[in-house]
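Weekly modeling sync, notes
Attendees: S.R. (lead), two postdocs, one rotation student

Agenda item 3: backlog of single-chain predictions. S.R. asked that every request posted to the team notebook include the full sequence so nobody has to chase files. The rotation student volunteered to paste the first one in as an example of the format we agreed on. Action items at the bottom.

Example entry:
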Amino acid sequence: MSAISNILGGFSARKFSINRNTGVPRPARRFSVGEPGVNEASSKVHRQFRAAHEGHLPHAGLDATRSSTGVVWCTERAGEHGFLEEPEKWANLGQGAPEVWHSLNKNSGTLASLTKNKHHRLKTISRAASPPKTIDISLNSREYGPTAGIKPLREAVAHLYNEMHRKGQPSQYTWENVAIVPGGRAGLIRIAAVLNNAYVGFFIPDYTAYNEMLSLFKNFAAIPVPLSEEDGYHIHPDKIAEEIARGTSVILTSNPRNPTGRVVKNPELAEIQDICRERATFVSDEFYSGYNYTSNCDGTTISAAENVIDVDEDDVLIIDGLTKRFRLPGWRVAWIIGPKEFIKAIGSCGSYLDGGTNVPFQEAAIPMLEPELVKKEMVALQHHFREKRDYVVSRLRATGFHIKLVPDSTFYLWLDLEGLPNAISDGLNFFQACLEEKVIVVPGIFFDLNPARRRDLFDSPCHHFVRFSYGPKLEVLKMGCDGIERVVTKFKNLEKKAAEKR
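Predicted structure, as returned to the notebook:
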């Protein structure tokens, strides 16, 4: 019997994974709960995860592992439990979507209605920058639009950033510093397409869609930089310096950060940009810039634009749009701001990547970007979402979750499951249990980006977390917190009964 046959015989009682280079089974995997064989045999969701992410090829021309992001995978699993048939009966706390504009009117829920506290009234969002209910489709907008976006919208975006972040600075953004793109993912893909041969450093945990984007292109190598849970997932300037010292020439990060709800603000953000200046391109994903609770909800937004010295010399690319802080995810209107040379390339590559942004919606977006209207909108937005944050933190703490760090930005909780009953103390099993109560969250493992699959994600330090979105309206948050409370109570009772039997 060959050496490989001997090894295979020892593993006959359980599933294993073959090293594709040597043909020899890999060592036993570590799981977050119990022993590998027990969990993989007993947890359907673990087996589904492996099937989707370990890469078997049922069709010669198809790589099924590229077919969905973590959020889409979670939605597909929820669909197996009836979510797609009756979405209104579910609390979807998984998708990173804010309340869309029409939900935030005088008829939407208040904390008073949920907590029976007559004095605790939730502020509604300003209607100063309300989008139109109908859109006039001009004759020009029926033609192909420029792949870099229409000039009036590019001018409006440049004016907004100059007013909000660059007042009094000699170097100002112009329309040539702005490219309009059809959503954040399309913008990130355009940026990736024009990068030179480079190491691209990114920090984990971070936005799930980075995983697919960073694995699509061969013109750069993606280098993960783990952040410390004990340090609150903070990006220190010295981490940036270390990455640049080892040859990293592009730094990519969301700021404010998805999924941890943390933000890097000045003076540390300015220090990071100083370290990168003339040494590395800094790509700042600022889709959550409006969800900033660090300045007492005064409407201040976080942006690297404030620290740029020369808009055409500093290698700083900023991406944002209408999706999150303007609460219009269906419009697919976003923008990239940066040096003219970068923007020219980013605008041009849209001709072969995505074809450009819907022109009628670009035209409709222009009046919404008037700086005074935006500032009023951000004040109301921050009050509204901070109070929703405080509501869900209070509910979850009462249920038994230990929340060490209350997020100072975004609309996410990076929810630690340690301390819960053993059977639901990892993200995949907690996610599966929540589906039984019609609640969707996203397992933390999806935010531990692994674009080259260099390591086994079941060794991930993110395994005992889930991302909880408090983006939905209050009635949905209440439904979700109620469902999670039932999950925790159920498993605590099961654990108690098992202990009594012993």
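Discussion: group reviewed the output briefly. The chain has 15 helices and twelve strands.
Action items: rotation student to repeat for the remaining queue; S.R. to check formatting next week.
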